[in-house]
Design goal:
The protein has one domain: Rossmann fold, CATH 3.40.50.720. The protein is built from seven helices and seven strands. This is SDR family NAD(P)-dependent oxidoreductase. InterPro entries: NAD(P)-bd_dom_sf, Sc_DH/Rdtase_CS, SDR_fam. Its EC number is 1.-.-.-.
Length: 230
């Protein structure tokens, strides 16, 4: 049974991906900061182990890797956990230095550190690293400078990792605009009900895993298997 670690798995895209892999017969180590939320969201899912903690904490990252070792290895690491930053989104000229540092700690430093810790297992199993990114990493949207910069940094690190690690595939995956709490926080007071739910694009992960494209940037919706309603 293949094994995945998914961070930020208590809600939104992370939970949708966890449900998708669980239904497909994967073992999933589900991570999120708040234990009650994580356990409540995943307790009914088969072959899902909830491991609550903060991915910015080195000890918690070690616990996640140890759990993968107990399950026999690691085939997929999904770096999904992330932060938006201040809400409403500030212009670049007004972003506080500490807010920017905090964003990079969560969105760049933590996933890179977890990836580094997972590499020995991923190399052995010729596994996959999936960094959840955003179109804000490659486009200039007003207010999205700080968040987009953190995602652009993660993307570039992932691109280079994909060149350096011949035994590991590294995908930068853009899920698109989704109806999530984070996206609502980016547009406080606005109606975002026109955005699709994360469950509509989560099957794209199965398409990626089935086709196994080379390291690179992908849109999740482009990989939804034929016959699956998006």
């Amino acid at each position: 049974m293949p094994t995945a670690i998914i961070t930020g798995a208590s809600r939104g895209l992370g939970l949708a991906l966890t449900r998708t892999l669980s239904a497909a017969g994967w073992s999933v180590i589900a991570d999120a900061r708040h234990e009650a939320d994580l356990v409540g969201a995943t307790k009914a899912l088969p072959n899902v182990v909830a491991v609550a903690g903060d991915v910015t904490d080195a000890e918690h990252r070690s616990v996640l890797i140890a759990q993968a070792e107990r399950l026999g290895g690691l085939d997929l690491l999904v770096n999904n956990a992330g932060a938006l930053g201040p809400s409403p989104l500030p212009p670049v000229g007004a972003v506080a230095g500490q807010a920017l540092r905090d964003l990079f700690e969560v969105n760049v430093v933590a996933p890179v550190a977890l990836t580094q810790a997972a590499l020995p297992l991923l190399r052995t199993g010729r596994g996959v690293v999936l960094n959840v990114t955003s179109d804000a990493a490659v486009e200039a949207y007003e207010g999205w400078g700080a968040y987009g910069a953190s995602k652009a940094a993660l993307e570039h690190l992932g691109k280079v990792l994909g060149v350096e690690e011949s035994a590991v595939t590294v995908w930068q995956v853009d899920p698109g605009d989704l109806r999530t709490r984070m996206h609502q926080d980016a547009f406080p007071g606005e109606d975002i009900s026109d955005r699709p739910l994360p469950e509509s694009v989560a099957p794209g992960l199965l398409g990626l895993l089935a086709q196994r494209p080379s390291s690179g940037r992908h849109k999740l919706a482009d990989w939804i298997p034929t016959g699956v309603n998006a």
